[in-house]
Amino acid sequence: xxxxxxxxxxxxxxxxxxxxxxxxxxxxxxxxxxxxxxxxxxxxxxxxxxxxxxxxxxxxxxxxxxxxxxxxxxxxxxxxxxxxxxxxxxxxxxxxxxxxxxxxxxxxxxxxxxxxxxxxxxxxxxxxxxxxxxxxxxxxxxxxxxxxxxxxxxxxxxxxxxxxxxxxxxxxxxxxxxxxxxxxxxxxxxxxxxxxxxxxxxxxxxxxxxxxxxxxxxxxxxxxxxxxxxxxxxxxxxxxxxxxxxxxxxxxxxxxxxxxxxxxxxxxxxxxxxxxxxxxxxxxxxxxxxxxxxxxxxxxxxxxxxxxxxxxxxxxxxxxxxxxxxxxxxxxxxxxxxxxxxxxxxxxxxxxxxxxxxxxxxxxxxxxxxxxxxxxxxxxxxxxxxxxxxxxxxxxxxxxxxxxxxxxxxxxxxxxxxxxxxxxxxxxxx
Length: 430
What we know:
Layout (H helix, E strand, L loop, with lengths): L8 H5 L6 H4 L8 E6 L5 E2 L11 E2 L3 H4 L2 H9 L3 E5 L16 H10 L4 E4 L5 H9 L5 E4 L6 H4 L3 H8 L4 E5 L9 H12 L4 E3 L1 H15 L5 E5 L8 H7 L5 E4 L3 H8 L14 H11 L3 E2 L3 E5 L8 E5 L8 E5 L1 H13 L2 E5 L12 H15 L3 E4 L3 H8 L8 E2 L3 H8 L5 H4 L11
Helix pairs in contact: 8-9, 12-13, 14-15, 15-16
């Protein structure tokens, strides 16, 4: 297995971005600041309690985490113009994915009123910005209603830059995407003499991951789960030389078991990746910890009969849907000793009744580790959802707002959205 061997995490990430502290050294009263936020939130249809497109915001936590940046800019007298996407409309308008409900939610959270503009670019947006006063907050329509957004169209970035004096990135969940609003726009703003800086959310995310990757308190344990080893092999290679224990769960553990020559039944297995799994185990030796028992069933479905079996006794006609109770205790022993924990990916199909206990128990154990003073960082996406479902989210040291972005950082890669910001010299050059 290839070693990470490209220098430390700092040098791989490049320069340290400037922040709001740097931006506030410039006159902001009346300046138009384009703020890229991540308001890709679940919505309730009006009159229901089930998350779906349209209606009202079902979970406003992502919005809340950008409010400090918005308020800080507005209090400095800037015209704050917020850009965000919602869902995957495919580059064309979709009334079910309008940001109008987000505007109503945002208005309840920020200090002043919020104006919603039902356009994303062009003269309507330019006029709205021109008419806005110092300290105002404006939210424009879904950026992904435009095909140029995901294509990183320079013309779209240039259109936004006509009214933007400065740019602030506070969308960690999309910082790993080189889109017009995350990459093209900050570069266009810088080209015209403006600043492009990290907001408070981005600054916090980068600081947390820098701390756990560069100077983790030890023992350092990483918990990786999810479906496929192929999606996390770079993360594994980057983390393995750094951690004291790498705990592997989820369907990706099946590929490791298969590499050991074990029966995996009808479980999801990446046969073509078994050689990589074997190399990981050889390189990591005792630091790589696999499940020792599993929850299996004839089908992964709510209400399906399940059984707990040793990992060497998985029935040929059944699939693994979760780690077993002995594995939970084994993982718990490592987490109980850890001073730093990074968790990304569930231990099983936790969203299906009967296959979630392993994931929820790991969430509870991680929360207990945080309670006793360990630094516990949970990646976005499914891991964050599992922590919330287990009722322990408030006890976790840090829950990231970006699953894909957190994986990129853990793999030692630079995020395109961060690379596009105004930056100080890298630590390597300082």
